[in-house]
Amino acid sequence: MTPPRLENRLPPEDLLERDDHPLRELAWLAGASLALLAVLVLVTGLSARWLAPRLPFKYEVALAERVFDDEKAVVTSADAAAARARRAALQALADRVAAVMALPPGMPVVVSDDPSDLVNAYATVGGRIHVFHGLLRKLDSEQALAALLAHEIAHVKHRHVAANMGHGLAVMLVLSVVMPEGAAQAAQGLLSSAAQLALLGYSRDAERQADSEALAASVALYGHAGGVATLFKVMPQAEDAPAGTAWLRSHPDTVERLAALRAAAAAKGAAMEGAVTALPGVLKALPAAGAPKS
Ligand SMILES: [Zn+2]
Question: How many angstroms separate the alpha carbon of residue 111 from the centre of ligand 1?
Fold first, then answer.
């Protein structure tokens, strides 16, 4: 038997020009892109919740601008002036509170109110803070509202929002770095109505940190912790929380919070009571209670 003859064939001369499979390269590229996309989605999915709070805050701001900034058009013309005045009053107080909280540069805080009767407030992506009218009705002083804003601003400052957002939203935030428009559209649905409440359940440590920042900001602004104590007494107990409001259930109960507040205030030498200021009229004259926005 003769061994097979090995030969060194020259490549065909037209190798670089041949076009017998004009779509082959395209098909290969498309397949590779799909595979790459699949890997990207998988990797992003696995790491999004780790990555989200570590991304520069500007990506949250950009996502929030795309998702929330058409909200302003929702206000009907008859209520527009009052609504603008309310937002201005809330924003002015939030700015004063934020000024004593040493936020990193590039971390704006934007407050808005919601006509829902829920006794609640929350911070969401991009430093956006929403306060429900149900809670505003129960806060009887500027000091209590400032304590609430300081608590929510602390969740923004320490990136608790990004660290605790739902998996889907974390993926969208990470993807928004490379495809801002598409990610914003996907995030819109995730941030609407009940979903936005359900996604926010902070750890007890995060809540303690936010309470401690609320105390520090209150003492810096007013010289006492009275507003924080009022806030804690006004917030509903966890067991009274309506279904779906993970935010409320995640907060420590009133007795525990007040005890921790008294201890922390005593350690700082801060008074638990002091002068209080009435809320501005625009924040007391709220329109008749509305249904939660859907
Ligand atoms: Zn909180």
Answer: 15
